[in-house]
Amino acid sequence: MTEEHKKYIKKRKVRKCVIVGLQAGILLLFIGAWELVAYLKIVDPFIISSPSRIVKIIGELYRGSNLFPHIFATLYETVLGFLLSTVMGTVIAIILWWSPVIKDVAEPYLITLNALPKIALGPIIIIWVGAGKASIVTMAVLICIVITIISVLTGFLSVDKEKIMLLKSMKATKMQIFAKLVFPANLPTIISVLKINVGLSWVGTIMGEYLVSREGIGYLIVYGSQVFQLDLVMASTVILCLLAALMYGGVALLEKFIAKKF
Amino acid sequence: MILQIENLSFTYHSKDTETKAVDDMNFSVNEGEFLGIVGPSGCGKTTILNLLAGIETPSSGRILLRGEPLSSKGNEIALMPQRDQLFEWRTIEKNVFLGLEILKKNTPENKAYGRELLEKYGLKDFLKKHPSELSGGMRQRVALIRTLVTAPSVLLLDEPFSALDFQTRLNVCDDVHSIIKQEKKTALLVSHDINESISLCDRIIVLSARPAKIKADVKVDLDKSLTPLQRRESPRFSKYFEEIWRLLEVRK
Ligand SMILES: Nc1ncnc2c1ncn2[C@@H]1O[C@H](COP(=O)(O)OP(=O)(O)OP(=O)(O)O)[C@@H](O)[C@H]1O
Ligand SMILES: [Mg+2]
To answer: Is the pTM higher than 0.90?
Structure first.
């Protein structure tokens, strides 16, 4: 390693340290200020809660063995909604790519569905699917699937025409064109859709839980606000942040893995 | 005679127009010949190659390969597209194996042949690299080897050097010429560049503006043992240039 390269590496390390340091600093500062404002009663802690109260209530939930059942309920719905919508959305996009006729027929419906605020369908879903987990998952799927179909299909359709011609000149079948070109060329698109879906499936699940549930993080938030227990609302929100970040991290890991393989 | 094109016509249809791109074309190509096709921009050159490659079906007329109509299977005719169109997510050797995979002929022997070609033509150290790690000239060589590895008898080259800078272009031109001659292939080359066509080809077909018709069939009588670069030095080179340039210039 040359002197210059060593310097470069060092510089990068320093930069990384500064960034992580700043990130942690901001978080600590925020928590500290929050705690202080609540402790000094500058704002009533009954309204804004405080970090120590949040920790306390999470502890209470845990001791009353209420914490993990709620987390798992929500996590289960979200992951299920996420997987279902990604897989179904991709499969539908494949079908629409395969048959231009079906694609053209479906287009106005897709556009309308995409523009529709899915929450408006909540009551209908509850009546049709029943007030339970199935409704919540349906909500999550509904929110994610349209955007999945549209993004993935757009990716499929934007594959270089000349590359398709090349494969046709090799007498490739449609199946081969898909498997050798269209799908691998769009793996990055699919990954970015996954990332969007992580966020959207949380939106769907929490919205669903607001409407119907008797358990889950969304339920805790609604319940907390109904009994005006802001500590519970805040604690649930913090847990939600952590879970969402965790799931996003999972997808990022998957991306790295795929990037390595291809 | 390896290829015969008889009364070939082709029309593109779109919502509000139809475009006649090829009009009643007749020509033939001899085994081992390097045939050039020059013509004004948009006259239908790529269309002719697409018809020969089986990507489009003729509106009328027919194409005979060794006296038989083109079949929808097989790999007798291979296309090298305008830009190299290497797949970035595949390594160099995997790019070369693409045609073999499509034809379900990716046997160990055929793959070994692909690697052998890559090594023979100076890409030994790049088998496991990705296309973005190669220079434009090297990429073009990989694209050529990708068309060679399925052992076709006819190669279709659509402006294979248009994406390269002038210096690289001259070198790659020599490379491609020597590879095609060594592998004893018949080749059809579409090019805008008259100089390039004369330096590479044994015969040049000059096309009219769209719809493409054959205006002239010029036999290039230069020493076949010379490289394209050396051919450019020969005294008769400029005579051919002038002849073809005039043909292209004159309308109708
Ligand atoms: N898919 C298509 N649909 C309709 N018209 C087309 C299509 N492809 C080509 N054309 C038209 O057919 C004519 C011939 O096109 P072609 O691509 O064969 O020309 P070319 O000689 O290869 O041109 P260039 O020198 O610019 O590459 C052009 O006028 C073009 O506008
Ligand atoms: Mg063209």
So the answer is: no
